[in-house]
Structure formats: structure tokens, C-alpha cells
Amino acid sequence: MPELAKKLETTVNERLRQVAPSAIREFDDRVSQIPDIIKLSLGEPDQNVPEHVKQAAIASIVANDSHYSAQKGSLPLRQAISQYLQRKQNLNYDANNEIVVTIGATEAITSTLFSLLNAGDEVIVPTPSYALYFPIIELTGAKIVMVDTSQTDFVLTPAALSKALEQHPRTRLIILNYPTNPTGREYSQAEVTALAQIIEKYPVYVLSDEIYSELVYDQPHFSIARLLPEQTILISGVSKSHAMTGYRIGYLAAPHATVTEITKMHAFMVTAPTNSSQAAATEALNNGDADPQASVQIYRKRRDFIQRRLNEIGFETVSPQGAFYVFAKIPEQFNQNDNEFAWQLAQQAHVGCTPGNGFGAGGAGYLRFSYAASDEDLTEAMNRIEKFVQQEGGQTHA
């Protein structure tokens, strides 16, 4: 096994050196070593890819579709995305010039941020929020402006947004993620409209991460791109809607001039997406509108179950309106350090969850439980948590 030459030990990107690895993944790796652990930690759908979608991928391989696609993605897939966005959100994006197919929504986020931000720029991020945003922003040299939403029912209010924009004149981009990971909160049309009325007054982009838009329970999803198409980069994909996380197909839609710049970064990073995955995604978007609804019915039942059980055990929970997470406040009689509590829960109850502080300051004192797990695992996990709380609750946990 080769060891790095000492003379190369300091040869590394300094920004990357200063960015910590994903705390969520690191914690998940730790709890994964515990025997008999039930993991309700990562955002991984437990449903199978629909059969007609799998067959499309197989047909692509059999047909020897093995050469580079267009860098922005295959034209049939971009056309499917365009038609899907028009059908679902009444949005009009040109398949040739305003859509890019990416390696998951993750690459769409990365390509966008590296394309639009410069050192010293500022980015407003409501917290708690998807943790990946933070290291990518740091790597661009821009600065993160966290807006704690824990006191406003975990939604970004117009007042909080206005204050952040006034106090941070170097803001170039606002990140919205809804339904939100980790809270499951969805924004209503009225809430989106109120935010858009503020944003349109400023020279800022909105990166609208709508990857969970098909997994909503109580109200239809309303994209901010319907109100501010000229300022929005809409990001989504098929990972959550069609349980295709391993296929790694996401996409972004934005004005032509913006897409031109993002496409350069995208091409430098990945060249082009995988053909068989694109064929599968094309089928999912063209003929799979009913597929997410089947998952929604399953997730709604699980949401109701896990929220009821956690409330009975003594956790306060945010009512999820989308995605597949419950964000739960640690009971007051326990140590409010969510890292320590989550580790204790994993060691003693053999239930893995995600500490809330990994999602930004607004998540401290909370735990994220994913209910993208079997009914049997969810039932057993709740029983274990209940036993843990009953046993530990009578002790002092200052």
C-alpha cells in the first residue's frame, strides 16, 4: 500500500481542506456498525423502480445505446422534462436551450453554485436545510447566510427574508427547498407568492430545489418558477419520485443565458449523463405520472403512524406535508445535544436517526427520522424508542 510522500502532504485545495466531511454520512457510518440497527437515517426510498421504467433501461442497453449523449442530456429526455414541467406546473422551458440533465440533483446544485457564485458573494439558506448546500457554497468561496426558521414553523417568512436581504447586500442567490429536507414542510401557493414578491425586487437568483415535489400529501406543489421564471433555477429529478436514486438522473431548468453558463460547468464535471439511465428517466416522465402517487399513499400511512407514535412517546414533531421525514424535538427531560442523544439512541435502542444540527442552526435539538422504511421496521423502531425513553426518562439528563 503506497503512502503519500511527505513532500506532498500540504498539496491540497485549501478550501476543501477546511470543509468537514458530511456530518450526516459520518454519523450514519458510525451507527451502521451497530448490530441489529434499524436505520431511519438516510433519505433513500424503499420502493422499487417501476417495472416499465426498468424495461426502458434494459431496452437501451440491448439496443447498444452506448455512445456519448449530448452534454445537456439526450434530446428525448429534455423533451420529456419540458413536457412534464408544462403538464405539472404550467412552466414553459425550451428543451434545446433551457434544460440540462445532470447526475442527480446533487450535480445540478453543484454545477449551478459553481457557475453563478464568486468569492465574497453571499447565499441565503433557510435552516434547517439539506446539508449538502453548505460545503458546496463554502467551496465556491461564497458566504452562507443562515436564516433560522425554527421559530416560524420551519418556513422562511417574508419578514425574515426581507431582513436578510437588507442586512446582506452581497446576496446573489437564495436557496429554497420544498417540500423541505429535513422537516417535510411544504410551502403553500400564498407563501411562495409572498416570498416571490420580495425576491423580484432584488438582483438575486432563486435556486429552487424541488426534488420532493411529487411526494406531497395535503396540498398541490406550487413552483416559484411559475412566478419568477426569469430569476429561478429549478432543480429536480427522478430519484425520489420514482425511487431511482441509483440511476443518478436529475435536471435543472432556467433561462437560456443562465443555462449556457451552467452547461459549461456541467460539461467540465461529467461530460454527459448515462444513456440507459436517461432512457429510464424518459419513460418515467412520459408514462409514469401514476407511479409517485402509489408511493404517496404508502408514505402517508407511514407518516401518520410514526408521527402518532413519536408524539405518544413524548416527542414534539413538525407535521410533514411532503417528502418522507419526521423532524422531532428531543423531549425536554433529556440532554438537548442532538448528536449525543442520537448516538445514545443508536447504542442503547439500536435505532439510527440523523441529528438535527447537521442541517444548520435551526435544527439543533431535533432528530430527523426517515419513514422510507418497511412497516415492520417502523413498528419495531418505535417500540424500541418507547422502551428507551421509558427506561431513561426517570434518570437525570441535564
Question: Can you tell me about this structure?
Answer:
This protein is α/β, with parallel strands linked by helices and 398 residues long. The chain is 42% helix and 14% strand. The protein folds into two domains: 6-48 and 291-392, Aspartate Aminotransferase, domain 1 (Alpha-Beta Complex), CATH 3.90.1150.10; 65-288, Type I PLP-dependent aspartate aminotransferase-like (Major domain) (Aspartate Aminotransferase, domain 2, 3-Layer(aba) Sandwich). It has a seven-stranded mixed beta sheet, sandwiched between helices. The chain has a four-stranded antiparallel beta sheet with strand order 9-10-13-12. α8 links the parallel β5 and β6. α5 (104-116) runs parallel beside α6 and α5 (104-116) crosses α9. The mean pLDDT is 95.
Structural class: alpha/beta
What CATH architecture of the largest domain would you give? 3-Layer(aba) Sandwich
Give a quick account of the main beta sheet: strands, pairing sense, barrel closure.
7 strands, mixed
The amount of beta strand, in percent, is 5-15%
Q: What is the total tally of β strands?
A: 13
CATH class type of the largest domain = Alpha Beta
Mean pLDDT: 95
Please give the radius of gyration in angstroms.
21 Å
Q: How many domain regions?
A: 2
Task: Assign the CATH topology of the largest domain.
Answer: Aspartate Aminotransferase, domain 2
Give the H and E element order.
Answer: HHEHHEHEHEHEHEEEHHHEEHEEEH
Helical content band? 40-55%
Any idea what the shape is?
A: globular
